[in-house]
Structure to design on (281 residues):
């Protein structure tokens, strides 16, 4: 029987090394604890007399920011506060108005929370020595990403390419951003790509794209503490949070869960070995 093209694509196995690592930004490569979006969302709603909790603000993390606002407004407790303050239920015009107000708040908080995740520059050096390309993608729009890019560059890191959620038809958990990064990098084999993210939505994106996925548990959304707050904890408290955060990211379906991108090179080695043995994501 002659195999069709679709049959060939389905059964084809890639046994070469990892070619690309595609990382989220806030909470993954920059901004320990993914604080910048949370600060901006809480400030945005407070300006309108709505007191959101950090847990509520974190629930839609990883999505495009107007989608994030829409999801927060749909939460019963927030919708009730909004109706009490404004006298009406939240509608789509409110989403768009809030999104416009959100932009300057987000730009300011990105600058305030602009530090690379400890160990990331060493990881970048190790990966690039292996010839691995580094892509980025984000729920930020292009203007927000411009601020992130500038801050990261000042600190010594620049991604090879990046794709924002506003540059594709649908953001996470759809795979389109990750696929667009592959396209920009010129990588053919999805099996040669690793998606690294600190949110369940970002892991879903990578899984939907057919990539290897790595969840980061401590540097991002599952922990939520700034680096200073994390380092101030006792060893016992850190371990308690670590167990909870690892469990949360494991439930996302990630192939691997690590504390932060400082631990990524060892995972790349493991994935290279699995690929060489004929295993696929």
């Amino acid at each position: 029987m002659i195999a069709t093209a679709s049959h060939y694509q389905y059964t084809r196995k890639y046994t070469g090394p990892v070619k690309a690592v595609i990382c989220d930004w806030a909470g993954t490569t920059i901004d320990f604890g993914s604080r910048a979006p949370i600060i901006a969302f809480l400030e945005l709603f407070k300006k309108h007399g709505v007191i959101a909790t950090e847990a509520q603000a974190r629930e839609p993390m990883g999505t495009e920011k107007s989608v994030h606002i829409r999801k927060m407004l749909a939460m019963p407790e927030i919708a009730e506060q909004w109706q009490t303050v404004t006298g009406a239920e939240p509608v789509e015009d409110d989403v768009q108005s809030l999104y416009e107000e959100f932009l300057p708040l987000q730009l300011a908080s990105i600058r305030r929370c602009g530090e690379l995740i400890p160990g990331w520059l060493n990881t970048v050096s190790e990966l690039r020595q292996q010839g691995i390309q580094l892509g980025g993608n984000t729920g930020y729009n292009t203007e927000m990403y411009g601020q992130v890019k500038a801050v990261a560059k000042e600190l010594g890191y620049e991604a090879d390419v990046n794709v924002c959620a506003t540059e594709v038809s649908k953001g996470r958990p759809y795979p389109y951003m990750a696929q667009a990064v592959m396209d920009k990098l010129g990588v053919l084999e999805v099996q040669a790509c690793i998606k690294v993210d600190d949110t369940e939505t970002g892991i879903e994106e990578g899984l939907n794209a057919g990539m290897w996925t790595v969840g980061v548990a401590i540097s991002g959304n599952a922990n939520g503490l700034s680096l200073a707050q994390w380092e101030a904890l006792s060893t016992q408290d850190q371990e308690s949070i670590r167990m909870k955060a690892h469990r949360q990211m494991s439930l996302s379906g990630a192939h691997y869960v690590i504390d932060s991108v400082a631990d990524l090179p060892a995972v790349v080695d493991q994935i290279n070995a699995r690929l060489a043995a004929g295993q696929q994501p």
About this structure: Residues 70 and 95 are 6 Å apart (CA to CA). The first helix runs from residue 5 to 11. The chain is about 50% helix and 10% strand.
